[in-house]
Structures are given as C-alpha cells and as structure tokens.
Amino acid sequence: MQRIMVVTDGSESANRAVDVAAGLAKALNGILWIVTIRDVKLLSDHMKEIRQLGMSENLLERFTKQILTEAKERTTRLGLSDIQIHAYEGDAAETIIDIVKREQIDLLVVGRRGSGHLAALPLGSVAQKLTSFCLCCVMVVP
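User: That's the sequence. What structure does it adopt?
Assistant: Structure tokens below.
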C-alpha cells in the first residue's frame, strides 16, 4: 500500500484518522494524501446562516486551509514527510469515491463520524457510503 488517503473535517474523529493514516504511511513508506471536502449540499443548506454570521467564501476558504494545515502539521510531528494536501467541493461521499478511483488510492482512512448533522449515528452517513462503494480498502477509525 503506497497511496494512503485520509479525509478530515477538523473534528476529533477526523484527527484520530489523520494520526492512524500518518502512522500507516510512515510504516509502509507511502504517500499520504490529506483531503478535506466542502460539501456543497451542507453549505447550501446553511448558506443563509453563514451569511447572517458575516462569513464569506473567503472565510470558508481560510477555514478549509486551516483544517488542511493543522492536519499536515499533525502528520509532520509524527515524522511523515511525503504528504500532499487537497481541498475539493462536492457531495462528500461521491467526491471521495471519485478521488479514490482517479488517483488509484490503495487505502482510505476516515473517522467514524464527522461534524455533520447525523454525528450521533453509530457510523456516519459518509463513512457508511464509503465502506459500501469505494473501490479500495477503507479503514474506519473510531
């Protein structure tokens, strides 16, 4: 396994997934892709609230960049050096599945639940879709 991808939204669950993915990439001498997805469906549902709070697209971009920067710093502290960071927009599950296929990812690492509306479910809706439809191994970190 040379190409490992971890998806983060900055949540505690995602941070645990980042740590696990970094450890695996280091042990396997692999490349780690750190990805965050701005889910357009969730954003459109909350865009009115976002605008009322005075948040702009620029602020959302900075927040996305902050999530990726923090995740990269976590992996660097764990001793990993071959790291790529990427931000995408789209439906979270569909976008991740497309990336996995296009980039020929060997292992996808995700947290059990993110910071979405259904965070109380035993397995998040995105993680559930990924374990069902991804064409690579999927590791769900509790």
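The chain has one domain: 3-141.
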